[in-house]
Amino acid sequence: MYAITGITGQVGGAVARTLLAAKQPVRAVVRDAAKGRAWSDLGCEIAIANMEDADALARAFAGTAGVFVLPPSNFDPAPGFPDARVVIAAVRQALDAARPARVVCLSTVGAQAAQSNLLSQRTLMEEALATLPLPVSFLRPAWFLENLAWDIAQAREQGVLASYLQPLDRAVPMVATADVGRVAAQLLMQPGPAPRIVELEGPARLSQYAIAAALSTALARPVRAEAVPRENWGAIFLAQGMKDPVPRIQMLDGFNEGWITFEGDDASVRKGSVGVADVLRTLIG
């Protein structure tokens, strides 16, 4: 039995579907029964637990061959990441109590970075779970290609890809959530010692010019990439409703300045098979 948190999202769902396709039993960990109905229809067990509830999580993780941990995303955290710390403490306590045979935790590219930024929430999770007396693997995927969902409307209507990743001609590692879920499931099922860190990117690194070209093809209209001036970022993010844009700006600086990157060399980074054209077909279709 494999317990999957975040199963209603893209990555968690991909993990579960990969396991089910391999004829493995899955326990869907959800906040309420209604969210798990689609998974129970597919033959999954359902466990009800909030990610802040250590006791409920321990029950959900009990008796399993593996647990997939997908921490909730918080794109506008309070200073010091208090919400993330509550989840981290609960997950660690639950895993320590349940003692599953294997754990795979979704982390991020750049989790090893010392500088504080939005992704530091994953760094804190790694630091906490690394001390457990369990085989824990941290899966560090690149920038998600599905983030392009936010760009499609402007590209379709104005022919513009407004980019925060700069310079526009620099190729950046990116990956599809389908590849992330598939690799996570493989890590859960693989026999033998668990690798501590697995870094993952898609089949090709992409510049913003390349993404604009892919959007042009997918939308059947010209799309050009334009850099959003850094001095405008804070005002833009505040206008979008963020309370504190600093962690997001720090994250973007990390990608653009190169200190949010893979820890291993290029040869050690796993490659996925789903490219930008495949993702755009799904997002647009």
Q: How would you describe this structure to a colleague?
A:
This protein has helices at 10-21, 33-41, 54-61, 82-98, 120-129, 152-158, 177-189, 208-219, 233-239, 246-257, 276-284, and strands spanning 2-5, 26-30, 45-48, 66-69, 103-106, 136-141, 143-144, 160-163, 174-175, 197-201, 224-227, 270-271. The protein is α/β, with parallel strands linked by helices and 285 residues long. The protein has a single domain, classed as NAD(P)-binding Rossmann-like Domain (Rossmann fold, 3-Layer(aba) Sandwich). Strands 3-2-1-4-5-6-10-12 form an 8-stranded parallel sheet, with helices on both faces. The protein has a two-stranded parallel ribbon with strand order 7-9. It has a two-stranded parallel sheet with strand order 8-11. The chain is globular and about 55 Å long.
